[in-house]
């Protein structure tokens, strides 16, 4: 809360004092004063400004305010949906929604395989993430009010390898195995063929010699 004030003939003043519920502040030479109304408790605030000049003449102005508690802020991650999957070549747009007055900050925290980071998203309705490694990521969106109240929303999403990358990996892995099987089959067939061929070229055994004549 900010109070604006002015005093005529300010160059002749010796003191300016602002009092809020019996707490006094020196505001000499100032034209405004900012304070946290909630620190005085909720309810009536009696405010007075007293000015004194060189002749000892004083003047005072008063006013009253009533401090009411601020509503608790709300925070919501509208996208992605919890557990939603994205290809590794895609970017992820995080949708942000909040309600509440006098917010002092909004932050988006990302944690996952690509590391942890905290992003200042004050005043933003969305934030886009890109070039993320495969795996599961956690999002935390935090909104803070001037009264120190916080609202938190969380979500998760998953980055998966694209189908094209999977196909390429399988082809690279399977091909050498297929070639090895073909090569083994060819060698085995060649060896068997040689053995069969050699067995066909052997000469028949010579006949047994006749017994000597009697």
UniProtKB/TrEMBL annotation:
**Does the keyword Transmembrane belong to this entry?**
yes
Q: Where are the transmembrane segments?
A: 177-196
Mind telling me which GO cellular component terms the entry cites? Answer: periplasmic space
Q: Which InterPro entries match?
A: CopC_dom
- Annotated coiled-coil positions are none
Q: Does the keyword Transmembrane apply?
A: yes
Recite the lineage of the species. Archaea, Methanobacteriati, Thermoplasmatota, Thermoplasmata, Candidatus Sysuiplasmatales
GO molecular function term, any single one: copper ion binding
Recorded protein name is: CopC domain-containing protein
User: Which keywords, in A-to-Z order, does the entry hold?
Assistant: Membrane, Transmembrane, Transmembrane helix
Which Pfam family is an annotated match for this chain, by its short name? CopC
Q: Where is the CopC domain?
A: 79-157
Q: Name one GO biological process term.
A: response to copper ion
């Amino acid at each position: 809360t900010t109070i604006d004030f002015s005093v005529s003939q300010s160059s002749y003043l010796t003191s300016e004092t602002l009092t809020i519920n019996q707490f006094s502040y020196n505001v000499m030479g100032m034209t405004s004063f900012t304070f946290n109304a909630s620190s005085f408790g909720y309810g009536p605030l009696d405010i007075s400004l007293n000015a004194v000049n060189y002749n000892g003449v004083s003047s005072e102005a008063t006013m009253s305010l009533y401090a009411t508690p601020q509503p608790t802020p709300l925070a919501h991650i509208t996208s992605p949906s919890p557990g939603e999957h994205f290809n590794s070549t895609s970017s992820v747009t995080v949708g942000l929604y909040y309600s509440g007055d006098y917010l002092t900050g909004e932050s988006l925290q990302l944690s996952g395989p690509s590391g942890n980071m905290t992003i200042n998203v004050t005043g933003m309705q969305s934030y886009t993430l890109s070039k993320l490694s495969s795996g599961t990521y956690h999002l935390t969106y935090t909104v803070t009010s001037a009264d120190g109240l916080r609202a938190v929303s969380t979500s998760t999403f998953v980055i998966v390898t694209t189908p094209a990358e999977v196909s390429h990996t399988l082809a690279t892995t399977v091909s050498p195995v297929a070639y090895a099987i073909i090569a083994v089959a060819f060698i085995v067939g060649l060896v068997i063929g040689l053995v069969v061929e050699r067995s066909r070229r052997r000469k028949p055994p010579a006949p047994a010699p006749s017994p000597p004549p009697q």
